[in-house]
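Hey, resending since the last one bounced:
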Amino acid sequence: MRIGILETATLAPEVKNEYGSYAEMFQRLFLSVDDQVAFNVYPVINGQYPGSNDECDAFLITGSKFDAHGEEPWIIKLRDYIVDLHEQRKKLIGICFGHQLIARALGGLSQRSKNGWGVGNVSSEINQVKPWMGDENDPSFKKQFSLLVSHQDQVVKLPDQATLISSSKHCPISGFQVASHILTFQGHPEFTADYLRYTMNKRRDLIGEEKYNKAIDSLKRPDDSLLVTRWMLNFIKIG
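The structure tokens again:
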């Protein structure tokens, strides 16, 4: 399996040296679950795209500091590329910014959340069980999952063809699926607690002290990043 990572952020050198780029974070994550996965990285923020949509078995859009509802030329180009992948029924996964931009590209809506910053380890309820999640009759099946989150924006309206798959109190649309080829999550399975703590420390004044303290405390709990990674790999294989 080859995954094309569409990178939508450029991290500062000191941050990249400590934690890796977003593409490197995803590569570590997927390889921790399946060491046979291969990758191509396309910094779409710098205008670099696949020469062919057949170069990879699936594509993944990373998170970004930019707004998915923004009008920067590279965001508009990526939005149009999402439509192209959708029309060709190419497997596509969106994380955070990617989740939001896919919604926008297909007729949904993403905007600043009225709930303010979403940060920390946040649980989502599964709204609809899908085959790639596993057997819901298995005693070990989880009806909810938790991921690390860091976002001001969120999807507030699904595309018409999308199915809601998960919701949290802070973010009612925390995951959705389109047919058997698009899957998205608001949370960050690729983030580590250390990296999220670093980003929250930088944004502490913006987040607010009460929310910051609760989010820091939530990092003591385990998250379900490996479970969600298995879901993503299953989705690519079976849809």
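Residues 19 and 194 are 9 Å apart (CA to CA).

Sorry for the duplicate.
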